[in-house]
Amino acid sequence: MKAEQIVLAIDGGNSKTDVMLVNTDGVVLSRVRGPGASPQTVGVKESLDCFGELAARAARAAGLSGEAPFAAHTAAYLAGADLPREEELLSAAVSARGWSSTTVVANDTFALLRAGTSDGVGVAVVCGAGINAVGVAADGRTHRFPALGRISGDWGGGAQMGSEALWLAVRADDGRGESTELLPAVLAHFGASSMTEVIEGLHFGELDLHSAVHALSPVLFRVAADGDAVAARVVDRLAEEIGLLAGVSLQRLGLTGEQVPVVLGGGVLTGASGQLLAEVDRRCRAVAPLAELRLVDLPPVVGAALWGLDALGAGPAAEAALRGAALPSPVAA
């Protein structure tokens, strides 16, 4: 297999990196997974070092030499490529590595949008560790958000949900907040006998705060689904935020009167209850009555690969083959 017939697809998330080599027939040649290496978190050089090592491993797993160039085209869709200026910087840095003849670097929400559509047109909202959205019109116009956290007006994502669960449980325990089943659920999650034990563990580093907060997100959703009013209000707030992200993009692109897909993805949404999704659908249709909600559980790296196949002019047959393939489980790096 020659590099001229291969796409190097990279899904660079905050918590993991997924790399896949796909040929122009839509056949997956290899797939490897490594740690999260967002350029905003670890730095551009360190991020690209990680991606390069994973690409070399993917090439060797595909029976290739493991030496660059690995492919004809690199399609890298990354958390942390939040602003056009960041995309331009990262695209230049990736191109300089010589992994392929051509390169596209974009935010990972574009990969979700392509995974959920046949042409990359519509609106996508991703809710994983964080939250973000992008919209693309048929004429190529785009609408996006900076997605830099609180400084850019963001609310939501797994980290936010877990943080709210902890905050509400603490306040229920010490009397500042409402009674909620989040309190016993959080205690059970940590195997603790008191919230003081949890607080001290987090404060003294005996419990990892980052991991702990993320792990509490499913706890909050479970308690809400069981009928707890306090937890349910947080889930309702998330539905409102997702509806706002999608609705603003639809309005700014003038798509409110069109039959347009609204693609949802990310770990929080793929594991969400039907009630949350129904509320998001209601809110989207209030803005765009013909909107079609689509929940995508394909790995985002598939969306990156589809954009790569588009760049190489692979055509519908290759897309159908890739979508129909039983993806190999990623080999941990």
Report on the structure:
With 333 residues, this protein is α/β, with parallel strands linked by helices. It folds into 2 domains: 3-112 and 298-332, Nucleotidyltransferase, domain 5 (2-Layer Sandwich), CATH 3.30.420.40; 117-297, Nucleotidyltransferase, domain 5 (2-Layer Sandwich). 47% of the residues lie in helices and 18% in strands. The protein contains 14 helices and 11 strands. The strands form 2 sheets. The protein has a 6-stranded mixed β-sheet, sandwiched between helices. Strand 7 (131-136) and strand 8 form a beta hairpin. Helix 4 (108-115) packs across helix 13. The longest helix is centred in the last third of the chain and has 24 residues, at 229-252. It is globular and about 65 Å long.
Topology:
Layout: E1 6-12, E2 16-23, E3 28-35, H1 39-42, H2 44-61, E4 73-78, H3 84-96, E5 102-107, H4 108-115, E6 122-127, E7 131-136, E8 142-144, H5 158-174, H6 182-190, H7 195-203, H8 209-215, H9 217-225, H10 229-252, E9 261-265, H11 267-270, H12 274-287, E10 292-295, H13 300-311, H14 316-324, E11 331-332
Parallel strand pairs: 1-4, 3-11, 4-5, 6-9, 9-10
Antiparallel strand pairs: 1-2, 2-3, 6-7, 7-8
Helix pairs in contact: 4-13, 5-6, 5-8, 5-9, 5-10, 9-10, 10-12
